[in-house]
Amino acid sequence: xxxxxxxxxxxxxxxxxxxxxxxxxxxxxxxxxxxxxxxxxxxxxxxxxxxxxxxxxxxxxxxxxxxxxxxxxxxxxxxxxxxxxxxxxxxxxxxxxxxxxxxxxxxxxxxx
Length: 112
Hints:
Elements: H1 12-18, H2 25-42, H3 44-47, E1 50-55, E2 60-65, H4 68-76, H5 78-90, E3 98-102, H6 106-110
Parallel strand pairs: 2-3
Antiparallel strand pairs: 1-2
Helix pairs in contact: 2-5
């Protein structure tokens, strides 16, 4: 495909080559398992407003929340949630080092 003269556009194929996809199949499976346990832990009503966003390589779980109120309420219960989640996940061979709550990424997570 030819580039247009006098343009600064990049070809999509060139951009895709530069992207770094770092999600493994195992990581995706872990996120699904964590989401199931997260929903079981906080209940169906609250799970509409807070969901698993990411589980990093250094075992930090990021939960996105619909707004700052939900994020703060969950943060106040963080130790209890952390303990309960780790008890359930250790049976599956997954260990969480920390839980972070982020309401700024909510829109981004719902557009996926």
